[in-house]
Design brief:
mainly alpha; globular; 2% strand; binds iron/sulfur cluster; single chain; two-stranded antiparallel sheet; 2 strands; 2 domains
């Protein structure tokens, strides 16, 4: 169930969407291309290339996802799911040549790495655009382009893959260790509690999946980026 933000309400059915439009504008939400104004023929886009937009172009900028997002609610900097869906829409367009948009959504605090993957935006969208899916695709683009820096979110993604590749199951303790590096100390009290209650096991106590071979093949075939 979505809990839409009420903090920008002006009166019944009227909200102040200024922040929504500022963030929308920040991702260069238009085709940035050097197109010949008098072309000899059309700039054709193949059906496969058009499919890559994944219906992100159907966004009506209603703001429902933006105001359902818990990170937008607590952080003025976070661009939000609608801005990311717009960023994806133009990054995925073969005609677009913008060189800064991907860097703009790569910033900690405002960019895609601060999404907590709660899926509220997907649930709120009346056009079924699924912004969280577009955020995942932007993550892949950032890894593939080499723009993704080592930060807690990227290490979490890489640590998750390493753990699954090694054991076929998730090593929760190892994942936190890999993701947080120096910040691990603050988790020690919680980790000890989880350990005593059997919620996490030490690395040597992990039982590997019986389907490890199959899982490793799946990871191999679906991996799009090295980091
Ligand atoms: S999945 Fe990410 S962008 Fe979507 S509502 Fe949750 S935190 Fe916001
Ligand atoms: S809820 Fe859907 S249609 Fe509305 S702004 Fe978000 S992505 Fe666009």
């Amino acid at each position: 169930m979505n809990h839409l933000s009420k903090k920008r309400a002006i009166k019944d059915m009227i909200i102040d969407k200024a922040d929504f439009w500022e963030k929308h504008e920040a991702v260069t939400p238009y085709l940035d291309a050097e197109l010949d104004e008098n072309p000899a023929s059309e700039n054709l886009v193949t059906p496969v290339e058009a499919d890559a937009l994944d219906e992100a172009d159907l966004c009506i900028q209603c703001g429902a996802c933006h105001y359902a997002c818990p990170v937008v609610e607590i952080s003025d900097d976070f661009m939000g799911p609608a801005a990311f869906a717009a960023a994806y829409r133009f990054e995925a367009d073969v005609r677009d040549g913008n060189e800064s948009r991907l860097t703009d959504v790569n910033q900690m605090g405002s960019g895609v790495w601060d999404c907590v993957k709660c899926f509220e935006c997907a649930e709120a969208c009346p056009k079924e655009i699924n912004p969280i899916e577009k955020i995942g695709k932007l993550h892949n683009m950032l890894f593939q382009s080499g723009k993704a820096d080592s930060n807690i979110a990227t290490r979490h993604a890489v640590g998750f893959e390493k753990s699954m590749k090694k054991n076929g199951v998730l090593d929760e303790g190892g994942l936190v260790l890999y993701s947080e590096l120096a910040g691990i100390v603050k988790h020690v009290p919680v980790a000890l509690k989880m350990f005593t209650k059997g919620k996490i096991v030490p690395p040597w106590g992990i039982t590997k999946s019986q389907n490890l071979d199959e899982i490793q093949k799946l990871i191999q075939s679906s991996s799009t980026a090295k980091f």
